[in-house]
């Protein structure tokens, strides 16, 4: 019998394991990218990107906004979730249905079948922007995983251990990849290395990341 794979390129496995409970779903969001970007436009019209300030007084290189019932914010008084956009004084825009559906489906594919996000942090990186190692720990219940969708320019995801000093592993994230981490990996340190210059065919010179969480 002929080799079924003859002439076909070896493809990456669709799901890569980073650590126990932590996975990369390669290309998972790609079939929905047009719908996601259209919904994103409406969110950005209501609550545009802004550079928030850390408690230490530094403006972040990553521009951020939120949608959903709870939005993650930082200012001189600290990090927290708030239902109101401090820039508009209005509630954050509602989470688009296609965002929520994608996040729930990705979590289920990674072994977290009951994930219903109420918060979506939207990060915008231009070349040179970076996000230093941190834990996501402003959420009420760490039993819920985190779902993170990459769009636009590729980036290097730094995935560390439970301590800040643990040397992180490096994973390339490309347009459409979805990272899910929870369970024993829920509080691992993570970040994004300085974004390299480039031009993405639909998003141009930027990377957009949607991070879904159950915050409340
Ligand atoms: C985050 O940790 O909030 C964002 C990670 C990413 O941009 O992929
Ligand atoms: Fe994070």
Would you spell out the secondary-structure blueprint of this structure?
Layout: E1 15-19, E2 22-25, H1 33-46, E3 63-68, E4 71-75, E5 78-82, H2 97-109, E6 119-125, E7 131-134, E8 146-152, E9 155-159, E10 169-173, E11 178-181, E12 190-192, E13 207-213
Antiparallel strand pairs: 1-2, 2-11, 3-6, 4-5, 6-13, 7-12, 8-11, 8-13, 9-10, 9-12
The structure holds succinic acid and fe (ii) ion (FE2).
Gist of the model:
The chain has 216 residues and is an alpha+beta fold. The protein is 12% helix and 31% strand.
Question: Mean of residue pLDDT?
Answer: 95
CATH topology: the name is: Jelly Rolls
Structural class: alpha+beta
Determine Rg (CA atoms, Å): 17 Å
| Bound ligand species | succinic acid, fe (ii) ion
Helix content: 10-25%
Give the C-level CATH assignment: Mainly Beta
Secondary structure tally: strands = 13
List the secondary-structure elements in sequence, H or E: EEHEEEHEEEEEEEE
How much of the sequence lies in strands comes to 25-35%
Assign the CATH architecture: Sandwich
Kindly report the spatial arrangement of strands forming the biggest sheet: 1-2-11-8-13-6-3
Low-pLDDT segments, ≥5 res: none
What spatial form do the alpha-carbon principal axes imply?
A: globular
Largest sheet: 7 strands, antiparallel
CATH superfamily: Alpha-ketoglutarate-dependent dioxygenase AlkB-like
The tally of structural domains comes to 1
């Amino acid at each position: 019998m002929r080799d079924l794979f003859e002439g076909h390129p070896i493809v990456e496995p669709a799901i890569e394991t980073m650590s126990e409970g932590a996975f990369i779903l390669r290309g998972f969001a790609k079939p929905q990218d047009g719908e996601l970007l259209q919904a994103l436009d409406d969110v950005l019209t209501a609550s545009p990107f802004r550079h928030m300030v850390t408690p230490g007084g530094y403006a972040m290189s990553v521009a951020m906004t939120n949608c959903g019932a709870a939005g993650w914010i930082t200012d001189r008084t600290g990090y927290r979730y708030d239902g109101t956009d401090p820039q508009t004084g209005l509630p954050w825009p509602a989470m688009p249905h296609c965002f929520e559906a994608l996040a729930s489906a990705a979590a289920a594919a990674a072994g977290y079948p009951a994930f219903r996000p109420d918060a979506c942090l939207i990060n915008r990186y231009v070349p040179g922007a970076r996000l230093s190692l941190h834990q996501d720990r402003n959420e009420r219940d760490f039993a819920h995983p985190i779902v993170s969708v990459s769009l636009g320019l590729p980036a290097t995801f730094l995935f560390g251990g439970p301590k800040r000093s643990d040397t992180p592993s490096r994973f390339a994230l490309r347009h459409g990849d979805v990272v899910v981490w929870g369970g024993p990996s829920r509080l691992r340190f993570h970040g994004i290395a300085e974004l390299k210059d480039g031009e993405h065919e639909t998003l141009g010179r930027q990377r957009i990341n949607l991070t879904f969480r159950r915050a409340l």
